[in-house]
C-alpha cells in the first residue's frame, strides 16, 4: 500500500510542476489553484508512505517520478524539445527508481 501511495504522490508531483509552469507566475487563477491542490496531495501522500518506507528510498522515488513525469509531459504536451539525450536521461531516472524499489531494505 505504501508503494501505491508513493507512486500516486509522484504523479501529483508531476501535476504540481506542470501546474506551476501553466500558472505563469501565479497569474492564472485555476492553474494556481491546481498547483496548490496537487502539491498538498503530493506531500500528504508522501508523508503517508514515509510511515513504512525508508526516507531515502521514498524521497528518491518520489522525485524521480516527478522529474521523469514532468519531462515526459513537457515533451508530449508543452512543446519541450524531444531529443535522444532527454529520452535516455528519463530512462536512467526510471532505472534508478526501479533499482531503489527493488533494493532490499534492512529491518528496523
Automatic annotation (TrEMBL):
Keyword annotations for this protein, in alphabetical order, are: Cell membrane, Membrane, Transmembrane, Transmembrane helix, Transport
**Transmembrane stretches, by residue range?**
27-46, 58-78, 84-103
Pfam families, per database record: Multi_Drug_Res
MF terms per GO, please? Answer: transmembrane transporter activity
Q: Which organism is it from?
A: Geodermatophilus nigrescens
Whether Repeat counts among this entry's keywords is: no
Q: State the annotated membrane topology for this chain.
A: Multi-pass membrane protein
Which family does the entry's similarity section mention?
Answer: Belongs to the drug/metabolite transporter (DMT) superfamily. Small multidrug resistance (SMR) (TC 2.A.7.1) family.
Q: Name one GO cellular component term.
A: plasma membrane
Protein name in UniProt: Quaternary ammonium compound-resistance protein SugE
Amino acid at each position: 500500500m505504501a508503494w501505491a501511495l508513493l507512486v500516486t504522490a509522484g504523479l501529483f508531483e508531476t501535476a504540481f510542476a506542470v501546474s506551476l509552469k501553466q500558472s505563469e507566475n501565479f497569474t492564472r487563477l485555476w492553474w494556481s489553484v491546481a498547483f496548490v491542490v496537487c502539491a498538498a496531495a503530493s506531500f500528504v501522500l508522501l508523508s503517508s508512505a514515509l510511515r513504512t518506507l525508508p526516507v531515502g528510498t521514498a524521497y528518491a522515488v518520489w522525485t524521480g517520478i516527478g522529474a521523469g513525469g514532468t519531462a515526459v509531459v513537457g515533451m508530449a504536451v508543452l512543446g519541450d524539445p524531444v531529443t535522444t539525450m532527454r529520452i535516455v536521461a528519463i530512462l536512467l531516472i526510471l532505472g534508478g527508481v526501479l533499482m531503489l524499489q527493488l533494493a532490499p531494505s534492512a529491518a528496523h
